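# nightly structure sweep
# worker-07 picked up a monomer target from the shared queue
# config: single-sequence mode, recycle default, output format = structure tokens
# input follows
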Amino acid sequence: MPDIQILSPHLADLIAAGEVVERPASVVKELVENAFDAGARTVTVELRGGGATYLRVTDDGCGMAPEDAGIAFLRHATSKLHDEQGLEAIGTMGFRGEALAAISAVSHITLTTRQRGAASGTHMTLDAGDIQDMYETGCPEGTTMIVRDLFFNTPARRKFLKSDRAEGAACAAAALRCALGRPDVSVRCIRDGEEVFFSPGDNKLDSCIYSLLGRDLAMSLLPCEGEADGARVHGFISSPAAGRGSRAQQYFFCNGRWIRSAALQAALEQAYRNTLLVGRFPACVLYVQLSCAAVDVNVHPAKTEVKFTHERAVFDAVYYGARAALEAEKAPVTTLAKAAASAGVDVGVGGDSTDSTDSTGIAGGVGVCDVLGEELSPEALKEVDISDEKGVVGLTSSCWRSTSCALRSWRRSCNTRRSRWRSCWS
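# output follows
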């Protein structure tokens, strides 16, 4: 049996780096989360190629003093955890003090930082975790971290990296998830000189989703809110008509941290049962708000999985919130104003609207039922009381009956023509 040996500190750092830094996207995630913890309001991520050769993250956070910058890259050095009681209620993105040490152990790093209110900043260069140079310099408030030649001293790890295109897309996706988790922070991602995305940082969830996920997905989302036993869920879920081909557009956040959770995924898809086609999946951007003591984030090396103290409460909050949102979408139209709005018809109130609107308040004398196949005159609409649900339901039912009659008549004419053609060919 071989003798047991104690590993050298350098080899131990390389092993630890393999647990935290799997690929360039892991570096993006850790550095952006550090920027959030530093109170940044603007974060810029720049990368070249796949991010392994050059990656820069700039923020306007609180920065670091020279004495803090000198020990920031040591293992288990952190400003976010002070005693063991802090582990029971972690409210920051990072807390272990391993990320910077793991990143610096397998790369060349250039750090420029200035504390808020300080007259000057600090410039540092590190190679494989060792400080090569450190001096005072002038720089903006905040921190700029440049990571070059990732995994230069671990060729086995670098060999398993994918193409620059795939790694660059993973870096952009990691930055996007961080940006979705913090709508109050403006995040910009630049790849090979071109802007990939930009979030406004106006603390508005809808505008954040619109700018990051695109117009098509944003317009298909439904507001969702739920609460159960202290677990609160809010955000957006997709309409059943806008089902996706995969689960790639499902984003779950717990106290601002992007997470993977089989329980939340099951709760969401359970709510969509019998509303989606087979092979289609809902999209969502859901935020779970819990007390810090009710969730344990120290169960995964990359902190992408968490453990809930009361998982059933979180499941119920997501499930019933999604069910309520879907039921609200399927609710019948009960007012003429809502019906006209859903049909795209301009409806005024009390005849005060302009642009050739008559006393019914409906432009051009055309009603909501035009879309359903029947044109109604202003005189017919005058007989419908907007506040009367029965009149509106009867009106829309009449429109559907008229449309059905028209379809039956068209089918009969098609059958007649088909029979004539058959008789001619025979």
